[in-house]
Amino acid sequence: MARNVELLLQENVENLGIVGDVVRVKTGFARNYLLPMGVAVAPTPQRIAALEAERAQAVAELAEQRDRRRMIVDKLEGIALTMTRSCNDQGVLYGSVSQRDIADGLLELAQSMGDSIDPRHVRVPTSIRHIGTYDVPIQFDQELRVDIQVIVEPDQPLEEREEMEFDDDGELIEKPRPKPKAEQAEQAEAPAEEAASE
Which residues pair with 152 in a beta bridge? Predict the structure, then answer.
């Protein structure tokens, strides 16, 4: 069983603590990340006292950030984000809509409030791969959470798309291109006019 060690954080670490916090972590996390990166050190009374001013500043910054994020959550309430993507005639996307795409789509709103939305704040279990409407949670922390609607639309109407067919050798079967509707209407009128002139 892994032993826990006590360390003093010299920087803010998401989901762990802020500068000046004394935290208990697994030895592997301490040995492989916190200590080599200089993020944490062994706690001593002198080190704790030296970080008091930085800790007070970090607490104030966190409170300010929380207020900004609360305003973002209020603005996101009931919002619908529309994204246009290429897809086949069954509505399956050629690419996907990922957490990063959604975060980028919301970035302008967040930046207008002096903050950002990290892709980790977008809680979709897998990338979106079909046309449709999805409820996507945006969660900054346990209490700051809002569901937004993400609407993925095709870049062209689905019924206008042609399905490609391949022969047994994997070669594309060329189909005659359908005539535009205006051209079809002209051709339908032409025989009627010829019949009337006879």
Answer: 83, 132
Q: List, as one string, the DSSP characters of 21-75.
A: -EEEEEHHHIIIIITTTTSEE---HHHHHHTHHHHHHHHHHHHHHHHHHHHHHHH
Assigned architecture for domain 69-160? Roll (3.10)
CB 128 within 8 A of CB 95: no
Q: Name the packing angle between helices 99-112 and 52-76 (round to 10°).
A: 100
User: What sign does the dihedral 23-29-35-37 (CA atoms) show?
Assistant: negative
d(CA 119, CA 145): 14
Q: Model-level pTM?
A: 0.60
Question: To which CATH superfamily is domain 4-50 assigned?
Answer: Ribosomal protein L9, N-terminal domain (3.40.5.10)
162: left (phi over 0), alpha (psi -120 to 50) or beta: beta
Domain boundaries, the chain: 4-50, 69-160
Query: pLDDT of 33-91, one tens digit each?
Result: 999 998 899 888 888 888 888 888 888 988 888 888 888 888 888 888 999 999 888 88
Q: In the structure encoding, which two tokens stand for residue 99, read together?
A: 């957490």
